[in-house]
Structures are given as structure tokens and as C-alpha cells.
Amino acid sequence: MSALKHGRTTLLPLWFGTQFSRDGARMKNVFNNVLDIVGNTPLVRLNAMTEGLQCTTYAKVEFTNPGGSVKDRIALHIIAEAERTGAIKPGGTIVEATSGNTGAGLAMVAALRGYKTIFVLPDKQSEEKRAALRAWGAKVVVTPTNVEPDDPRSYYKTAERIVEETPNSFYANQYHNPANPEAHYRSTGPELYEQMDGNIDVFIAGAGTGGTLTGVGQYLKEQNPNIKVVAVDPVGSLYYDYFHTGQMTQPHSYLLEGIGEDFLPSTMNFDFVDDVVRVNDAESFQATRTLVKTEGLFCGVSCGAAIAGGLKYLRRNDRSDMNAVILLPDNGSRYLSKVYNDNWMIENGFLESEPSLGTLADMLANREPRALVTVPAASSVPEVIGLLKLHGVSQLPVMDGSKLVGIISEKLLLERALQGERSKTTVGDLAQSNYCTVNKETSIAVLTDLFRRFKVAIILSEGEPSGIITRIDLIDYMSTMARKAK
């Protein structure tokens, strides 16, 4: 590490934040460059937003990193590893598919290391994020959000194409680069455990690439396997259903930035995750604005999502001797045109809080009990058609033992029967993923969002299907609530 000249004084590094000048004077909080201040972010106790909870909850304020987010940690480590292995050469170009924050971290490191950068962002990312990347000298390519991951127009495929077309380029590939979770295993996890002096019971973070959850989760569980690691996932992402069923359901677009995925990155390891909580756009945006108004924390929208989801989990599992930490990934300056813009919030229907309609448990309490009918995956088409007719239903969950395989509908069965597949096809081969999963704590607001995309929701109790909810059930419940309100 080279010495830093400051005026007439040459500074020599000694340890983090402390240096000595040539004349021996001790200087504090002076660093050789901006990369030396990545990490060592503070913990701040939450007070107003946790009112009514017995547990003590802290926010890990990652937006105090110099690039403005937790992604500074992985950017520094990814580039260091690429340099160590020779994957990147002097004067090379770093390419990445990013929601903005990883790009900012990479651009910051690249500015000091002499690399060029090209970043590919989905079009739902804020203009502030694009402008910030350009300020660091990066080239920004914008791609459509609402396309499949393997579509040539997706930001993943576009980034891969740019790497192929750009000489002396390096693909940071945060979704499949083991340096991503390794950075958190080496820095965020130990740092957090030391800050809490080991007295941490729950760690909560948004589920994006999975690097934070995997790296921090692995480290914390190595120190104490009883520590719970909780992921927060937006409606539209596939993590929630995959964690609870092992099946890949159909993802769809959502407005939240920075968390959730429409494919499964190799950097996400659910072996270190104990639960996944789901949030929707509205409650995440509202929590973001409440966080700055009540706690003074000027955060980004993924922070609001982490808070909204974290509070759901903590309310269900609250106890007086519990210490919880919620990681807040980035700052609010990159969202001024969206969540902090009243006109944008009004246009998208997010400014006013939705009236509480309760949870799925409240809906079930107002509905006649129904026994769940399932069908084994090995059943034939004629057998299942008979079951649908016998029970007067239009779809059934398909099970392989205790594992949910998918769902089968009368429409598909009729099509297959007409094609002459009545005897040779099992429903396990025909099971579809056009469903979502919920539990009794799921709010009606979240259920309403889910039914914009799915016709049926399967209720999970202790990981196994226990019931089915359809749009008709939701309509009946909301009609009942409306009559009671009169």
C-alpha cells in the first residue's frame, strides 16, 4: 500500500482509521483512499417502528459505505479476487448486470484501479441510479424488465453478450460468483457478530442475489446454530414459493428494486436460511417513508421491504430476551423520483395506506371448513377427472408423497383427454406451476396482489398443503367485510 501525501505530511498506514505522520503524530480516521472505509458500518437501535414489540431490534446501516450500499463489500472482494486470479487485466472493462448498487460499488473500485465499466440495468431502476453510475464514468445500458431471464433482451443475457463483444472484459457476475457470499462471510458476518458481542438471535435481510444471506448466515450459524436467518422476498419473486415448496413457480414483475429474483442464483444457499417472509410493493414503499420520518434513516426501498418483512416475522416470534438485526442495504438518494416523490406514489396508488382487511386466518375463520383433496403424482388422467367431478372442484394440488409437485386443472385435463392421453399420461407429468403459496399469517393485501397473477393459492401449514384459496374466496370475504362495515 502506498503512502498518502497530505499537504506537507506523508501518512503511513498502521491500522484501520489510525495513521502516523512522519513526525510521529498520531492521526485518527484518516485513510489512504476511499476503499479503506468500506465496512465497519454502525448498528442503530429501532424505536418508533418497533413499538409494541418485546424484542430489541437493530438496523445494520449499510448505506454508510462510501458507495452508498452494502454492495461495496462484494465489489471490492470480487475485483480483488479477479486481480488475484488474473481474470481481469490492467486497463480491462468490468461488465455487470445490476439493479444499480453493485454497479456503484464496482464503479467506485474501478475508478481507483484504472478499469472501465459497463453496467446493464432493468428499466424499472430509478434514473438516479443510472445518473450515479454515469458520474463514475460508467456506460449504462437499459433493458426491459418484464422479459424472461433467458430472453436475449434480459439484463442477464445482455450483459453476457456485451462481455463476448468487448475485448479484455471481465464479467463480475454477482449472481454466480462465489466471491459475492464470501465477501459477507469474511466481513459482514464477523463484523456483525462482534458488534453484538455474540448476543444476536435473528438476522433479517432482503433476498436478492443471496450473497448477504448466504455469507452472513453461514458465518453466524458457525458461531451459533440457533441464530435464525430470515429472508424477505417481494410478491412477484420466486424465492418464497421455492423455499416453502422446492418448486419453481412463475415469477412476475414488481416495482420494488434491489431484491427478489425471477431465477435461482447459485449465490443463494437456503441451507443457511430458516424462513422467508413475503412483502408487497405497497407495504414496502410505505415502510420506506415511515422509516425516514420516524427513525431518521434515509433509506432505499429495499430497506423498507426488509423492515416490513422483518416486523412481520418479529411480531409472530416476539419475546423479551430476543435481539434482532435487520440489514438496511442502501440510502434514499437514489429513489427521490420514486418512493420519495408524492406524485409517483399517488400515480401508483401507494401514498395512502390500504385499509387493513386482516390476514388469511381471518378469511378462513369466516369460511366453511373444507377438507383438502390432493392427488398423487402417479394418478392417471381419467382418475383425476373423476376426482374433480366427485368433489366439484376445478383444480387439485399434485403430491409426490409429502412434497407439493404442482397443480392440475380441469381445463388441462380436458385438453389432454381430447388428445387421447387418457391412459398413458400421469398428472405428475402434467402438473403446472401457475399457483402461489401462502400461510395463515399472509395479509389480505398481499393475497390480493398475488391474485392479480395467479388463479389459486395453496395454503401451507408446517410446510405441507392444508387448503386452497381462489379468487372467489377473496371476493366472498371482501364482500362480507364490506357488509359488516355498513
Keywords:
486 residues, alpha/beta, Rossmann fold, 4 domains, 6-stranded mixed sheet, 4-stranded antiparallel sheet, 20 strands, 36% helix, 20% strand, disordered N terminus
Quick rundown:
The chain has 486 residues and is an alpha/beta fold. The protein contains 16 helices and 20 strands.
Please describe what this structure looks like.
The protein has 486 residues and is of the alpha/beta class. It folds into 4 domains: 1-32, no CATH class; 71-171, 3-Layer(aba) Sandwich (Rossmann fold), CATH 3.40.50.1100; 181-347, 3-Layer(aba) Sandwich (Rossmann fold), CATH 3.40.50.1100; 360-485, CBS-domain (Roll). Helix content is 36%, strand content 20%. It has helices spanning 71-85, 101-113, 127-135, 155-165, 179-195, 211-223, 239-245, 281-295, 301-317, 342-347, 360-365, 381-391, 410-418, 427-430, 444-450, 471-485; strands at 4-6, 9-15, 18-20, 26-28, 43-45, 56-61, 93-97, 116-122, 139-143, 169-171, 202-206, 228-234, 275-279, 323-328, 375-376, 395-400, 403-409, 436-438, 456-461, 464-470. Strands 5-6-14-11-12-13 form a 6-stranded mixed β-sheet, with helices on both faces. Helix 1 (71-85) crosses helix 2 (101-113), helix 1 crosses helix 5 (179-195) and helix 5 packs across helix 6. The protein is globular and about 90 Å long. The termini are far apart. The model is unreliable at 1-16 (pLDDT under 50).
